[in-house]
Design goal:
The protein is α+β, with helices and mostly antiparallel strands and about 200 residues long. About 40% of the residues lie in helices and about 10% in strands. It is globular. The N and C termini lie far apart (about 35 Å).
Length: about 200
Amino acid sequence: MHRNSQKRVYGDHVYFITCNVQGVYLFFENEILCELWINELQLTRKNTCMKLFAFCLNYDHFHLLIKPNNSVANYSKIMQFLKRHLSRNINIILGYNVYDTHKHSTEGDIGQYRLRVVNQQFDQTIIKLRESFKQKYGKNHDIPKFKWQKSFYDHVIRNKSDFDKHIKYTMYNYCKHELPEDWKYTGLKYREILDEID
């Protein structure tokens, strides 16, 4: 049995989640795509009312430590929302998808949580990132179309010791993968978007 084919455990839990890019392409070496990932993470946090305790984005995968608000969205819905919108928007920036502001605001199973004002701000973010990417790389680049692996790995946090171990692992994961010492796409650099630990 594939390790990600296990039955999901839903409830009032904190979850450690890992999600990988398909084909292990290093998409997030690109700062423009990292900025989009941070924006999408913040939007997902707001729209799903999840608590975010830690995160780390690496070149080809990310880790989250979250507690869903199950009355709004369980962690499978959170991941579906985050992965779907990121895939679509990364491919817009890469030039594979056409950007349509009329279609953008209501896509996704829990897209109804996207508030109109937030959508308009996010529209501007996508447009700016697309322009930055075109200026840097032009229309002809060799970056492939973006896809996530179909599933994701999850672990239910069992106790305080398990939580402490996973928060440290998540926040400092970039060191394990020998990313730059000043790597900024970790919760260590974005304390303001993290929730306080109860």
